[in-house]
Amino acid sequence: MPGHRTRGFRGTAKGSRATAGALALCAVLAGCGGPGEQAGGRTIVLRYTWWGNPDRAERTEKAVALFEQRHPDVRVRTSFSGYDAYKQKLATQAAGGDAPDVMQLDYRQIDQYASGGVLLDLGRQRRELRTAGIDAGLLATGRVRGAQYAVPQGRGTETVAYDVRAWRRSGAPLPGRTWTWDQWADAMRALARRTGKPGGTDPGQSEDAFEVWLRGQGKALYTEDHRLGFTAADLTRWWSFTDRLPREGAVSSAEQTTQLDGSVENTPLGRGEAASDVNWDAPASGFGALVDGGVALAPMPSGTDGTPGQYFKPSMFLGIGAHTGHPAQAAQLAVLLLCAADLALARTGLPSGRFFAVVAMAVTAGAVLVGLRACACPESLTDWRAALSAAARGTVRDPGGTGLVLCALATAAVCAWALPPLAVLAPGPSALALTAVDVRLAGRGSRSSSGGWSV
């Protein structure tokens, strides 16, 4: 499989710096077990494939590049495409015994590929791939017959992404917190009348939209005993409801719908031919670069009686090929990609993205502070776990010392920026400052315990 690197897709400078800094921490975490071992002096080659849009590809390629820096003996050949093309290509590779070393998976593929011997039991890589920090219920979605074959990268939900500017100009009421399928259909008709183009994408072709509609009727696609959870009458009702909408011009025509390939670029909304689209929240972020004025997300319609059909599901998974020749390195790559997926929300443009960016930077700064203060702890010479624990307690209990560390680091950074040759000398004074803060904390504890004064 030919590898490639995505070029030419650029975010904002501020977003790029924040993402790069956060991913650097991911690289450290992914490489905490040490650089990969060379196979007889040869370079290890891993293949990683995923689906997505160019924006996701840019972030993924940055994460892969950092992994390669941390593991100079490993090269990662990457490949991505839209979801439909990716699904078909992966099925062909799996059938031919040529599955990638690391692959992105949808939750409906887990059972099939695990049962077919395509996926590695991740329990064999517990040392490299630690999952204790993942919600137990979410993690369980990657298990088949008690074995962990895939790790979820997050969770997502289906939404209605809409062109805010077009919707407002039409004069049609903006979507509220709740609406029924009939109200959604009326909104599509109103948009079509006032804008001269379909209000949205025809949902009749979408299994995901059908599932949301079913759940709003109190039913499901499948039962717990792996049978269909709906009847032919249910499907007839759904298609009768959706079939009349393109005939009325309320949603995309058959000609437009046949161009769908799983990418946001080829949706009617992405091509500027409709005012909205039913899509998952993660790929919906790609509309931001395609729609002038941006998009907003509305909830999926509910049942007639208000029963919600919208739900959370694992957004995507990472799996490792059962026949990979380098399972440890593949697991290390998966660790970094899992971390990168958490940080990617900061640049998606979704409503929570800015808040998440602030939280991610705060967490990253806290982790860096704890790591630096751990270096100054005497325990770091013999027990790093104890050093990190002591540093974490010190960071919280000694805000004054934490402030001094930040001042010292800021001073070192300013000096190095003003006079680059000083960057070589910065580690020395920084280490002295860290040690002084640690001694200060120990001295304060001694004075307090003896009844003396504290500062």
From TrEMBL:
InterPro entries referenced in this protein's UniProt entry, alphabetically: Bact_solute-bd_prot1, SBP
Keywords: Membrane, Transmembrane, Transmembrane helix
Compositionally skewed regions (Polar residues) per UniProt: 253-266
Coiled coil spans: none
Region (Disordered) residue spans: 249-276
TM helices/strands, residue ranges: 355-376
Designated name of the protein: Extracellular solute-binding protein
Species this chain originates from: Streptomyces alanosinicus
Lineage: Bacteria, Bacillati, Actinomycetota, Actinomycetes, Kitasatosporales
